[in-house]
Prior knowledge:
Elements: H1 3-27, H2 31-35, H3 41-48, H4 57-61, H5 65-84, H6 97-103, H7 120-125, H8 130-134, H9 151-163, H10 168-171
Amino acid sequence: MSNGKIQAVALVFIVLVIAGVAAASRNYERSGYCGSCHSMAPYYESWQASNHASVECVGCHTGPGVVGWARGKADLVRMIRAERAGGATTFDVETGDEFCMGCHPQAKSIKESETVKVSHAVHDAIGLDCSSCHGGQIHGEDGGPPTTITHDTCDMCHAEEIDDYDLCSKCHKW
């Protein structure tokens, strides 16, 4: 066989290996795979009941680019090893505002909703991130049912204002 043919066969082999690895890798990025781990099952079930169930886990738990992809794979390997060793894996993957802003770029400019007057810019200016108020909407606490923003959520920072019901119209639209 000539050198050209050997190189062509080698190139085809390398391309097939890379395509196979990429296809197998994609399987591990599916949310159903995440939910197959005992430790992640409650989070998966909670996510399925949320209004973000159409967003794959990697959409919020894997950073952008090659570095984010590599870190995501390293986190996955760590979690698989912990699970196979009989331990509980942990959710060490931080999800910052950049993940939320990828799908909700207009969020920081929201000044009010149909029922509530809440300036996101004011909350952002004092250093609150999206999860400070919205964290339970995708995964409930410790994988419990998803939660919505309630008076209790606002009460964490605004207890004095909430105790004075004469000030309801400060936040609520009637």
